[in-house]
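for the writeup, i need someone to sanity check this before i put it in the appendix. the sequnce is what the collaborator sent (i think, or maybe the updated version? ugh). structure was predicted straight from it, no edits. if anything looks off just tell me and ill rerun, i have time this weekend
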Amino acid sequence: MNWNWRLCLLAFFLAAAIAAARPGQDPIATMTPDDLAHGKRLYVGHCALCHGIEGGGGRGPALNQNASRRVKDNMALYGVIKNGVDGTEMPGAWQMTDREVWRVAGYIRSLGRVETATPTGDAGRGRDLYGAKGCGGCHIIRGEGGASGPELTEIGARRSAAYLREALIDPAASVPEGFLTVSVTTRDGRNLRGVRVNEDSFTIQLRDDENHFRSFRKAELKDLKKEFGVSTMPSYKTLAAAELDDLVAYLASLRGEK
């Protein structure tokens, strides 16, 4: 082995020893602008589709606010990116190296230092409008309400105001995971429509708009139609601009606090 190779090996083991001697160091704390730029490129390629280019949220939670209960510290954030979140659409970043995952985590933390837009409406009036429109018949807030739509207890921490506004105006633009609308026709001519609760090769279970559960054997159905890109939620585009602002402000204020 020549001296150049020996020097390279010595440098490698020395770097490893230094890293091992500082096990408690937070990788994000020492990141350079180049690290964050690299993290942004990875984020845009792998994360922005669900979380928004600037972390404002979309199909996934907003990341430009320090509101998640799941990531108490940077190591927890690293774990969520690396391993994903069970029971959600969030996959693990198996294709990234550890260093790349840390760079993405560093970029996400930098988003949390960006000032976010505050809704202009009145949350109190929005709460009254929410009740008047009967929204509680489909959505649960703090344990109260119907279950035919997504729970909204923490919706303000998980979605941006822009996303909430779009969901009110055009509910079908981004139907939440787990709320696929299905229409069935039985062999005796009955037509039923609801949200899919469960399905296997032989049966399907739906929850109708009256919150009743219906179970069917597929072999006994004349027709089964899955309505992708369709929402059973009505559009609120007919609301006055001020009313829409108020409703968005109320939903944005729902952050899980009692």
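The longest strand covers residues 191-199. Residues 3-20 form the longest helix (18 residues).
thx in advance!!
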